[in-house]
Amino acid sequence: MLHDALSTTTTNTGQVPDHTYTAISSPPSSRSPCTNAPLLPGTPHAAQEQEVSARGGLAGWQLRKVIRHIDENLGHALPCYDLATVARLSTGHFCRAFKTSVGEPPHAYVIRQRIRRAQSLMLHTEDTLSEIACTCGLTDQAHLTRLFRRIVGSTPKAWRTRWRPRAA
After folding, report:
1. Are 116 and 2 in contact (CB under 8 A)?
2. What does the alpha-carbon distance between residue 28 and residue 22 come to, in Å, rounded to a whole number?
3. What does each of the 168 residues of the chain score in pLDDT, given as a tens digit?
4. Cβ neighbours of 155 (radius 10 Å)
5. DSSP bridge partners of 22
6. Rounded to whole angstroms, how far apart are CA atoms 122 and 8?
7. Residue 168: CB partners within 8 Å, gap ≥ 6?
8. Contact 87, 121 (CB under 8 A)
9. CA distances in angstroms from 152 to 76, 83, 100, 121, listed in the order given
């Protein structure tokens, strides 16, 4: 169902691939409210399909512990050295292993999780966008809007207006 709502495009400029997620639009009348809203995927496809840790990647317990730490602390700063401490690795080794395991660097993963959390809050609360930005660990509404537009492809207000169920 999630794959029906999103398409993944990858552009390669000879360096590290840049992943962007674009929502596939469907007419408002053909979807039920809130249930088909295109949230960003929870974890990249590489991490979902991988049961055994990849060579050079994080061990299963390390990955679970780091992802749990990220989810519990999205409202706070999450520097790589803190995540590395959770995994009991040096910062450099952690960043390489995380990218091998998840398919994207830790900072990109944290930003995507913050946008995912913001999407969920936009659907299920009446909070203003500035309150949602602060709850998700972003500095202000402008920061949320800039990241949201880059990752989702529309502004938070436009996305919320489109996917939020209308009050009857």
Report:
1. no
2. 17
3. 333 333 333 334 444 444 444 333 333 343 334 445 667 665 554 444 444 566 889 999 999 999 999 999 999 999 999 999 999 999 999 999 999 999 999 999 999 999 999 999 999 999 999 999 999 999 999 999 999 999 999 999 999 999 887 765
4. 15
5. 7
6. 22
7. none
8. no
9. 22, 25, 24, 15
* Three-class SS of the chain: CHHHHEEEEEECCCCCCEEEEEECCCCHHHCCCCCCCCCCCCCCHHHHHCCCCCCCCCCHHHHHHHHHHHHHCCCCCCCHHHHHHHHCCCHHHHHHHHHHHHCCCHHHHHHHHHHHHHHHHHHHCCCCHHHHHHHCCCCCHHHHHHHHHHHHCCCHHHHHHHHCCCCC
Q: Is the dihedral of CA 125, 129, 130, 134 positive or negative?
A: positive
